[in-house]
Amino acid sequence: MKVHARHGFSLIELLIVIALLAVVVGLLVPAVQKAREVANGNACQNNLRQIGLAMHHYQDGQGCLPAGYVASLPYVDGASDTSPGWAWPALILPYMEQGNLADSIDFSLPIADPKNGLAVKTFVKAYLCPSDVWFEDPFTITDAFSTPICSVAPMSYAACCGNDNSDTTGASGNGVFYRNSHVRLTDISDGTSATIMVGERAWSCANGIWAGAITGGVMARGKMNPCLPIVPGASFPAPTLVLSHAHLNNAQFDADGSAGMDDFSSRHAGGSNFLFADGSVHFIRNVPADNPDGSYTPEGVIFQALGTRAGGEVVPPDWIN
C-alpha cells in the first residue's frame, strides 16, 4: 500500500508569511497615501487654475474682477449689513461651467431667501479640495446665538482681502477682494505674479461657503482646526465665510483667539495652494504663528506682502514655489 505524504504549512512558516505580508503592507500604505496626496494636490491646483480662468473671463466681460461680496446696505459693521451678500464664487459661476446653477439664483434676493434655498445647497466640485474633509450633505449657517439661518454647501477656498491690516469685515481692504470691490488687474501695481487672489481655507478648519456673506450669519471653527488657543463658541462674522487675509497660513497659534479662521489653511503637508492674479498657482509654505512678542516673523512679512495689491513691497523671487 502506497502512502502519500501530506504537504502543508507549519505554524512557524505561516507566522513567517504573515509577518512578511505585514512588512510589505507597511511599506505600501505610506506610498499609496503619498501618491493619493500628490493626486489630491494636483486636483486642488487645477481647481484654482479653473477659478483663475473664470476670474479673468469675468473681467473681460464686466471690466473688473468680481466683488469680494455684494452689499446694498450702508456699511455699519460688516456683519449685519451684508445683504444680499452674494460673493465672488457665486458671481463667477457662469465662467465655471455652472451656468444652469447661476440661472437658478435670484441675485436680487438675499442668499438666505427661501427662493434661493435649493441653489445655495448645491455642491460645486471645483470649490472643494479633495484633501479637505467636509459633510456629504449641506450644513447649517447660524447667527452668533446659534439660531439656524439656512443650509448651504461648503467651500475649501477664500479670496484675499489684503494683509493683516485688512479685516474680512472691513468696508474695504488693501487686497484684491473686499466688500463691493471692483478691482481691475491694472490696479494691481505690485504685479499680478506677486499678488494673491484666492487661497485654500480648509472647510475642516473654518466652515466657509461659496454662496457669500449671509447677513447675520457666522463662520464656525472647523472640527479639525489645530489652532490654539481653543475658545469655546468662537466664530467670525459673515464676510469671513468667503474672505481671508494674508496673515497666517495653517495657523498653530493665534493670540487673538480667532483660531486662524480669518486666515488661510489646508489639509496638505507644509503649506497651502494659492491662485495669483496672473492666473498661476503656487504652493506657499506654512506661516504658523507670529513671534512670541506679537511681532511678525520674516516669513509672515513676506506672506503679508503677497496679500496686498499696491503695497510696494518686494517679494524674494525664490519664496514662491
Explain the overall architecture.
23% of the residues lie in helices and 14% in strands. It is α+β, with helices and mostly antiparallel strands and 321 residues long. The protein has one domain. A 5-stranded mixed beta sheet has the order 9-5-6-10-11. The chain has a two-stranded antiparallel sheet with strand order 1-2. The protein has a two-stranded antiparallel sheet with strand order 3-4. Strand 10 and strand 11 (281-285) form a beta hairpin. The longest helix has 52 residues, at 11-62. The protein is globular.
Number of domains: 1
User: How many DSSP helices?
Assistant: 5
**Quick one: overall form?**
globular
Spatial gap, N to C terminus: 78 Å
Strand order of the largest sheet: 9-5-6-10-11
The percent range for helix content is: 10-25%
Helix/sheet category = alpha+beta
- How large, in whole angstroms, is the Cα Rg? 23 Å
How do the helices and strands follow one another from N- to C-terminus?
Answer: HEEHHHEEEEEEEEEH
Q: Count of DSSP E strands?
A: 11
Identify low-pLDDT runs: none
Described by strand count, sense and barrel closure, the largest sheet is: 5 strands, mixed
List keywords for this structure.
11 strands, 321 residues, alpha+beta, two-stranded antiparallel ribbon
